[in-house]
Amino acid sequence: MFKKTSAPKQPLVRHGILRPVFLALQVLLVLASVAWADPKVVDRITAVVNDDIISLFELNQAMQPYLERMASLGYSPEQEEAARYKLREDVLNQLIDKKLTDQEIKRLNITVSEKEIDGTLERIKARGFGTEEDLVEALKSRGMSLEEYRLQMREQILRTKLVNMEVKSKIVITKEDIENYYTTHSDEYRFEKQYHLRHILLSTPPLAGESEKAAVKKKMQSIRNEVVAGKSFADLARAYSEAPTAENGGTLGEFEFDDMNQVMQTLLKGMKAGDVTEVLEMEQGYQLFYVEKIATASERSVDEASTEIQEKLYEEVINKEFQSWLSNLREKSVIKIIY
To answer: Which option is the CATH number for 192-296: 3.40.50.150, 2.40.50.140, 3.40.1550.10, 3.10.50.40?
Structure first.
């Protein structure tokens, strides 16, 4: 069904297509953060990967976050010993994969400019942060500086370019593949629901105590009771909501179900026009979502859905091809593990 070809490389595709392979790459990015740690004396080598080494210090640093979570699982001494052994093996293999991809990036002269990093950060800010100061505060709450985050973005962009060059550019999705998918998934393109949503937000101060949060939640529950009793959600949003959408009656707009994130999909599944959610606790405070109406979008033709289908088909095949590429890279490399 899917064919490889030696056709000329395709340009970097828009962000979002490579989500499955990011599951593997994000692990490598976590491991890349080891480089930010303070330098320490390396007591011994745990692995040799071609001309590079992996030190015991690197391995221990990469294992540490997982060991902290493991300590809270209540394992018996025997279970913990077995889990630690398996964790050491898995993390060491992930470090080896990172070394190999780093070497390929260097061999292929793949680079990333500061302008590309700036562009990525601007897109991230546009999706969820108003200003750079908001982003810096969010990073600070995770124990990360903006400089460290830029390093992480550099790693991600480099690996995305590597995947595009070595894997994605060699995958061809044919017109027949797209038509077959459209035929077997016709309901996805003929009955797309659009949700017109409104919301109300009552914010809580960043350092609010439990009693203060409880008072805000109680007020929101009272507002919800008024909605259930038949009062206009839009009027209540204008009167109480602390979101910028308040003056428009809390209107968020229309969204196709498949375009919403998993949390919203789960929240709205089974809801009808006129329904209101339970009071939801979120990072910025408490929210209510109201389904103003549900409309059925007109049927899309195979040509109109072609780009979306192509992206889905890439998602299905690219992670498999990346793992195959990585396995071949391992076979061609000199890897020695020292216990």
So the answer is: 3.10.50.40
Of 282, 196, 289, 281, residue with least CA distance to 236: 289
Structure tokens given for 218: 């109680």
Secondary element (H or E) of residue 270: none
Query: Looking at the whole model, is its pTM more than 0.85?
Result: no
Residue 33, C-beta contacts closer than 8 angstroms, at least 6 positions apart: 148, 152
Q: Which residues have CB under 8 Å from 244's CB, separation 6+?
A: none
With both helix axes pointing from N to C terminus, report the angle between 56-70 and 19-32 in degrees, rounded to the nearest 10. 110
Nearest to 284 by CA among 130, 126, 120, 124: 130
Phi, psi of 43 (to 5 degrees): -80, -30
Whether pLDDT at 27 is above 60: no
pLDDT confidence tier of residue 212, bands split at 50, 70 and 90:
confident
Between 114-128 and 146-166, two packed helices, what is the crossing angle to 10 degrees? Answer: 110
Task: Specify the pLDDT at position 38.
Answer: 43
What top-level class would CATH report for the domain 3-172+304-337?
Answer: mainly alpha
Q: 28: exposed, middle or buried (C-beta count within 10 Å: 0-12, 13-18, 19+)?
A: buried
Q: What is the 3-state secondary structure (H, E, C) of 224-263?
A: HHHHHCCCCHHHHHHHHCCCHHHHHCCEEEEEEHHHCCHH
pLDDT in tens, 72-114: 888 888 888 998 999 999 999 999 999 999 999 999 999 999 9
- Inform me whether the pLDDT recorded for 40 exceeds 50: no
Residue ranges of the chain assigned to CATH 3.10.50.40: 192-296
Give CATH 1.10.4030.10 domain extents, the chain.
3-172+304-337
